[in-house]
Amino acid sequence: MAKAIREIYGEALVKYGRDNTDVVVLDADVSGSTRSALFQAVCPERFFNVGVAEANMSAMAAGFASVGKIPFVNTFATFITTIGLLSARVFGSYSGLNIKFMGAYGGLSDAYDGPSHHSIEDLAIMRSLPNFRVYVASDEKNADWLVKHAIDSKGPMYIRLSRDVFPSVYESGTTFEDGKGKVLRKGKDATIVACGLMVGFALDAANLLASDGIDVTVIDMFTIKPLDADLIVESAKTTGAVAVAEEHSVIGGLGGAVAEVLARNGVGVPVSFVGLADCHAECGAYTELLAKYGLDVQAIVAGVRETVAKKL
Amino acid sequence: MSLTAERKTYLDGLCGKFRRDVIDTLYAAQTGHPGGSLSVCEILTALYFEKARVDPSNPQKPDRDRIVLCKGHAAPMLYRVLAEKGFFPVEEMKTLRQLNTRLQGHPSIKHTPGVDLSTGPLGTGLSAALGMALGLRLSNTNAKVYAILGDGDVNEGTVWEACMSAVKFKANNLIAIYDWNKVQLDGKSADIMPQGDMAAKFSAFGWRCIPCDGHNVEALCEAIDKANAYPDDRPVIVLADTVKGKGVSFMEGQNAWHGKAIGESDHKRAVAELGGK
Q1: Best interface-test mutation with A: which of B132, B146, B164 has the largest number of A CBs within 10 A?
Q2: What would the pLDDT profile of B26-72 be if each residue is shown by its tens digit?
Q3: Which residue of B60, B61, B144, B165 to mutate against A (max A Cβ within 10 Å)?
Q4: In this complex, is the C-beta atom of B110 within 8 Å of any C-beta atom belonging to chain A?
């Protein structure tokens, strides 16, 4: 049985943070959910549960960072990027402090708790902050690497995780690079640029499309910022059509980032946006939510057909 | 340990000079916050010139004491004190709030030597100071963290979240100093957001409170010594009784002078009252 992304995260915190005494971990009374509790179990002296006080947690993290620690801030993605945002902006973005904001329960993964707990604007919010780097974990191997990367690379970061299990995309030992997307499949008819859960779905969509004679490239753009602009431009030019797939609002997230890059480079290809259509979802089973709100394999297939149909 | 008469005279002299210079700087800039700057003058002077261990020749020294001006709008006074201490030339004061300056409208660790935390948005300073204190403790230094709160600042809920957390984490290397002038931007705190019994509130959260005259450097130094001498794990707050706009009669206690530009005749009057030329 594959492990949930949150489990991988908690294990990676222990793996990479246990012996690095600069790593400190903060949580806001959801450590069992975020799995930061795994770190608490082995390094209680470097774990700080602040209670349900996300604004305080984010600002405390800034203090830790200012004296040379590497603080990991943990709570649900939507609370980090709303209540915790002031400190992310003033201490992370403006001051450049080395704070790692870990967005647990990204997208609709906290499905049954409903839209109050879903996170569908986080990428748009965090991407707009100068100096921030923004990532979305796309599978177990990638999530593990992102934790190591957060420790090794200085500067403010936002990393979106998930409550759930993601389809496995990468082999053990796969290496990743900051600002470099991963080409998982090469095709000639369209490019799917995806992140997070949508990456695995995009590969399934590509197989379905292939049986229909549509041959697509699939890119995992786990590095939302810095974005791999060269790869996007090159692939868009080669295939002539782009579909972006993300578990996020269609406004301002990966779709917005891809559209900005294409426009800036004068690449006039059709782009379809697979994501939440500027609306909130509702509560329900995760797979049912993904289907109803256009975030499943079929939605990506439809998105590719839409963009391919508009090709010149 | 009380100050020698000579030292006390010296520090009082510094405070007089800082007040006059800040008024001149704000008059020249025609922007910035006089009221809170005049209010915090003795607190900053007591810390930087007497109690805090800082080194202008090495502003990033890892085991230095940290000073967090949570009420970041009092930046002009902070900058004047830092300049006197030797972190940058006093001359640079005339660049305050101007394009390309190192002296931003609110304190910035990116720009200004000697500033330990970027502040401005209220409510986050005490939380960050707590994180510093806990981080320094993990690093086994005996450095202290001083956080200077203001009346608008304590309106913010985060301040009280930080109060709870500081007690939970036994932050005995964190000392808050409340520049308690009881006036904020829109009016008296009693009208904007009544404070009630502040000492009782902080005490109820588990903090030790030390009341003191916030315009008496010697009293502030004694309060800080007392705060540092407690043998237990409770955080301490010095409740420094102050006057917004202190030293300029027509600014004292007046919320209108929170962030108003100083006109020519007001500047003349203020300078005369502060014993300038």
Answers
A1: B132
A2: 999 999 999 999 999 999 999 999 999 999 999 999 999 999 999 99
A3: B165
A4: yes
Q: Which amino acid is at A78?
A: T
Q: Output the six-digit token pair for B147.
A: 């956080």
Distance CA B277, CA B269 (A): 10
Neighbours of B38 (CB within 10 A): 32
Distance CA A70, CA A23 (A): 5
Residues 6+ apart with CB under 8 A from A233: A261, A262, A265, A267
Catalytic choice (A54, A121, A246, A247): A54
Question: Are the CB atoms for A108 and A281 separated by under 8 Å?
Answer: yes
Q: pLDDT tens for residues B145-168?
A: 999 999 999 999 999 999 999 999
Walk me through the domains of chain B, giving residue ranges and CATH numbers: 5-273 (3.40.50.970)
- Residues of chain B under the 50 pLDDT cut: none
- The shortest CB-CB distance from B158 to any of A24, A48, A56 is to A56
Domain ranges of chain A: 5-160, 182-309
> Would you identify the CATH topology of the domain A182-309?
Rossmann fold (3.40.50)
Given CB atoms, is B104 within the 8 Å cutoff of chain A?
A: no
Contact B141, B129 (CB under 8 A): no
Please tell me which of the candidates B138, B161, B169 has its beta carbon nearest to residue A55. B161
CATH superfamily of A5-160: Thiamin diphosphate (ThDP)-binding fold, Pyr/PP domains (3.40.50.970)
Enumerate residues 187 to 246 of chain B having a beta carbon within 8 A of any beta carbon in chain A.
none
**Could you check whether A5-160 and A182-309 share the same CATH topology?**
yes
Least Cα distance to A36 among A54, A63, A17, A55 occurs for A17
Phi, psi values for residue A193, rounded to 5°: -105, 115
User: Cα(B101)–Cα(B118) distance, rounded to whole angstroms?
Assistant: 15
